[in-house]
């Protein structure tokens, strides 16, 4: 498959896209991101006296134990959420296939742009990042920029732009590829993508 003046490998950028595989990979990715820190207190954890409210028999009132029971306001929660790890394992083959399909989806839709470099300098500048997007004609679009390796200056320059994500090749994932309107690939990043997907 050809993008601009560059020939891209068909085994990575022209794979048959199967929606179910992409759905599985995205679901796994989002599950991995979940913090799972939600927590409620049970009746054993709320701060109340364990004293029995009133005698079991003889008062004509309903039978009650302590004030922390779940039927009272401020009492413990019955069957409430507790911290949970939502991660589950997805085969490496499926993860790689999902990444290939996401890349192929963008390539087949003609939504991949290839660039030579990001000229920002030694200090992070959002202004320079905006100039870069303007030169590529991507200023008002959601863009995922893929660079060969982590570059703090580049990443910090784009950090304030809500419609742009910058990822090194090692952090490239199906969710961020499908999220964007246009995928901008650094020329040097393409060979690294091949290396990552053939390993």
Care to describe what's here?
The chain is an alpha/beta fold and 199 residues long. It has one domain (2-36, 84-198): Ribosomal protein L4/L1 (Ribosomal Protein L4, Chain: A, 3-Layer(aba) Sandwich), CATH 3.40.1370. Helices cover 36% and strands 12% of the residues. The protein has helices spanning 10-13, 19-33, 92-108, 126-136, 152-158, 174-179, 187-198; strands spanning 2-3, 6-7, 112-115, 143-147, 164-168, 182-186. The strands form two sheets. Strands 3-6-4-5 form a four-stranded parallel sheet. The chain has a two-stranded antiparallel sheet with strand order 1-2. Helix 2 packs across helix 3 (92-108) and helix 4 (126-136) packs across helix 5. The radius of gyration is 26 Å and the shape is elongated. The two termini are 22 Å apart. The mean pLDDT is 92.
Instruction: Please give the order of strands in the largest beta sheet.
Output: 3-6-4-5
Number of helices: 7
Q: Count the strands?
A: 6
- Specify the CATH homologous superfamily: Ribosomal protein L4/L1
For the sheet with most strands, the description reads: 4 strands, parallel
Which band does the percent of strand residues land in?
A: 5-15%
The top level CATH class name: Alpha Beta
User: H/E order of the elements?
Assistant: EEHHHEHEHEHEH
Query: What is the 3D form?
Result: elongated
In total, how many domains does the architecture comprise? Answer: 1
Uncertain runs: none
* Overall mean pLDDT: 92
Q: Provide the CATH topology.
A: Ribosomal Protein L4, Chain: A
């Amino acid at each position: 498959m050809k993008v601009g003046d560059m020939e891209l490998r068909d085994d990575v950028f022209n794979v048959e896209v199967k929606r179910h595989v992409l759905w599985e990979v995205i679901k796994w990715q989002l599950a991995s991101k979940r913090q799972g820190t939600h927590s409620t207190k049970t009746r054993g954890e709320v701060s109340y006296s364990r004293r029995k409210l009133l005698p079991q028999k003889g008062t004509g009132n309903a039978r009650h134990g302590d004030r922390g029971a779940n039927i009272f306001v401020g009492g413990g929660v019955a069957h409430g959420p507790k911290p949970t790890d939502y991660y589950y394992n997805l085969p490496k083959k499926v993860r790689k296939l999902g990444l290939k399909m996401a890349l192929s989806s963008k390539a087949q839709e003609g939504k991949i742009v290839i660039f030579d470099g990001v000229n920002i300098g030694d200090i992070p500048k959002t202004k320079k990042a905006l100039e870069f997007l303007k030169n590529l004609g991507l200023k008002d679009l959601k863009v995922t920029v893929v660079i060969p390796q982590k570059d703090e200056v580049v990443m910090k320059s784009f950090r304030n732009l809500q419609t742009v994500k910058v990822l090194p090749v090692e952090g490239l994932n199906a969710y961020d590829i499908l999220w964007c309107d246009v995928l901008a690939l650094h020329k040097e990043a393409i060979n690294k993508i091949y290396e990552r997907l053939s390993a």
